[in-house]
Task: structure prediction
Amino acid sequence: MGHFSFYLSTLVVYFGIDLLSAWSLNLQYGYAGVINFAFIVFQAAGAYVAGAVVLGPDTGPNSYEHYILGARLPFPLPLLAGALAGAVLSAVIGLFAVRRIRRDYQAAVMLIVSLILLQVVGNDVHIFNGQNGITGIPRPLQTALGLSLPDYQWVYALWVLAICVVLYVVVERLSRSSWGRSLRAIRDQEDAAAALGLNGTLLRLEVFIVGGAIAGLSGALLVEFIGAWSPGAWGYAETFVIFTALLVGGVGNNRGMLLGTLIVPIIVLEAPSFLPTIGYPGLIDAIEWMIVGLAWMGFLLVRPRGLLPERRFRAPRPAAGVGARHGLAGWVARTFTLGRPELAPVAPVAPAIGVVAPGRASNGEATAPVSPAVPPAGARSGTVGSEEQ
Amino acid sequence: MRLRPHRRSPSAGIISLVGVAALCVAVFGSFTAASAVRSTNAKGPLNEAIVIAYTGPVSFEGLAADGGVYPGVSEINAAGGINGHKVNIVPVDTKGDPADAVPLVDKLIATTSNLIGASGIGTASAPTEVPILNSAGVTMMTFAGETAFNRSHYKYLWRLLPPDDANGKAMDLYAKSKGYKRVATVFGTTTGAQGDLPGVLSGLKGTGEKLVAKITLTPNQPSYRAEVEKLIAANPQVIFTEQNATTAVTFFSELKSLGHLIQAIGTNALVTSSWENAVRKAMGRSTFKRVLTVLSTSAPHKTPANAAYARALATVKSKVGSPWTQWEGNSHSQAAYDGVIVQALAMTAAHSVTPKVYNTHIMAVTEPGAGKTVVYTYAAGVRALKAGKKIQYYGAGGPIVFDKYHNSFGNQEAMKISTHDNTIPIATIPEKEIQALG
Amino acid sequence: MNVFVQTLGFGVVSASIIAVGAMGFTIQFGLTNVLNLSFGGVMTVSAFVAYLTEQSGINIWLCLVLGGVAGAVLTIFLGRTVFKVYARRGTRLFEMVMVTLALGLVIEYAVDAVSRDQIYSLSFPEGASYHIGAATLTESQLIIVGIGIAVFVGLERLLHMTRLGKALRAMAVDPGLARSCGIPTNRIVNATWLISGFLCGVAGVIYVLNALSVSYTTGVIFLPSIIAAAILGGVGSPRGAVLAALMLGLVTQLVAAAGFSAYSSIAAFGVLVVVLLSRPSGVLSAAARKVELTL
Result:
């Protein structure tokens, strides 16, 4: 049993890290509609940087690997460095990727970013040691705490869960703030939102950077736990796992992420290792990925809003003021001085345009159409489902 | 449209999350106290794990490990098992990804009873796995080439192959022995290639050969014409090379089409059927054998240990990668086979199957010494130990001599590869010369 | 100078491979508005079909045709079943991208499972070398360039000189209007799946004709260049795709020739970024009006 507890502590750590990833992606996709197919890149950036700033310079005992940013920062600075790396990379990529272009283009561009960066980091050994990656990253405070490895793992698991609790408060407040409502407004009706003075590109860039910082933090937590990071850990397919968790849990619902994360990365991806090996080595791995892809497609078809669908909120104040206070800085000031915004369930009446986010018009469920220009789903057999951007 | 009957407090999520966390600690924290000691109660069969990548870019390592561990375990079981226990094999696919490897290794430790040891521990994720297995007290027999393990202090880690840089230096020495003066390196940016290349480059300083081109190939490109042109322009006499099969096929095809297929010396990572078949087809059968020489650790002569390994391999031919004959001359497979036999002999000598106990007997069954009985098979070793003799196991990969860092080096050999994927030794590079190169 | 000319030669070869795929991608995307990320998976399947036909000793031209047909059949199958089902359910454009990416993943790993995670090499003879100015190209490389040119000319003629082409162009501009003018949109969509699928398949085959090996990742490795070329060239424009492919092919080879081979693939991406930053209108032109899935 003792060893099972050891395994379980690992799963708890992974669960926490995947949960952070899911919340980060949920902010970007669920609230702002940014399809970040490069998500794993930002996690990787956090992991590499957090690893490098702990390892020390790549000379002397570390001369067998080459990497940039070598330093010896004490705990918990590497975590902050990881979050910062995620944010900075998001800002750079966001500058061109979150502009007001068609969202399907945006998604494709993100995928290309993910594939190309993987190639570059894997092939240039001078950035983060190429395919071998960086290794030998010590676990934070392990010697200082003086615990046995199993005990230490539980302490680390608690540490990750504590961060999750803090981040949960942050993302929930963000999503309920006027900033969060603005995001939903530009997601569902960018033109109407723009008419109210919301700058869609700026909002998307903001959420992209916030999400990137959380992704970077999750990568930093992961690398400090596993002690190594290499291109094998951030193939483009890894982003899928988090997206699938999002779809299963319910896009736009942070609590749904708990469920989605438990089901997809933990149960679906860990369970096969308990099965006896069948066929040639690698067959189970291939089947696992096919299951992830099929789960994604299935949920989009059958239950596009996930197990716990997004809840809808109505803004407490009329629409007029939204534009003036959509900025992130404004949100921070308000949230911590005035307390959290009022929330109320939405009644099935026609919403005030642009401010209320009436969920997704994407599926057959009884959500009110966002725009009169959208034809009802399935109205014509030939041409259905449209989007104005 | 549904209406929510109640307004849930937004803090409910936080509370439930805290609750989950608290529950985890309360329930499972209590078990940790008991988890410090791994006990192998030795009822029922013993389990030997193979922790290695079977998928991903370094999947060749998994097949090579299988090619050694399966015959080794089969030989042990045929000789009656270890101290009367049969041995099972538990393969663990790390996918060459450290993030995937950690939970898999933790799960292996958590759910495997009677875990006597771990084989493989391949190059890509070894630095992640070794600390975990070491702290869990699992004896590891590895062939990971990382230079990082050259001076490791992990009590339970034993390395049976020289590090990658020694392989690189042996390539230099072989080229020098053939009288080549102008050399070029052509390495892909794959995991293993990164280990050998530093060895090649540092060795060149000692051998006096001139490096005329250092070419790096980005794997899996549709064409390497620019790099091929660069290589031809530098006019080397021989190239040192390691790249994956896809890359090698494209590169050598283009080199050939321009009529400049010069002699190539490859690392030990090229000794796999899938690489050989792919590149043989690209170069042409006879050209492949003429042009390519690989450097690898291997037993210099046909020994009884080789014969025992070959026999054991034949008994498990359906369980190892096809064609099964390719593993007989594969240094990685030989090392994996020797690792399993050494563990079993140490267990026999220690009268215990618990890693904590038998781990300290490993050097006692491998070290040469006056008055020791040299054994080549598991069965012979057990007989000698039962008769109260001290033994030295002489492995399929040659003698095993661990230094204080638990590293066993050994001679390297230049080899040709036959059309049936068998290796044909053509020259030996002694361990001493490699070490002398610095 | 000679190195430069030689590099140009290789650039044209790379460009031809990208161009064939990008032409298929761009007409598919232009007409149906499905940004189909499973395109790479279909290419891999066609490449494996070519491998199997090559193994049974069938000549290279038949390999090309069979690979193309495999691509066409698979594409129309997916178009009429998977994509149509989602479109009927009211899936929006950007959610459709997610469907295609998931589908791509399923195809990729299905091929992985069937191909037993192995790399297979082909032995098409590269043929004699020809000197064109200062550049040296092999026979198979010349064939690749020839196929690229033939596909381009054929597609241009199809689009501008046939009734089908006229209908295709009309539908790409305004599907609603095209329908009310009596154009059988359903059949046109089918034709688009078939043509683009065929080109996708041919692209997969000529890719392995050049690289001489195939594995389950073949299509995914190649996909970024194809998407970049299609977006860069303007959606729905084969001419634009060919020009963009030429640009990408040349940039990639020049960067490699300059000794930065690790960065050669980033060149494709860099060009795309520059376009997104400098002339988003080019990308937006199709998005400025209302865009619908046309299936």
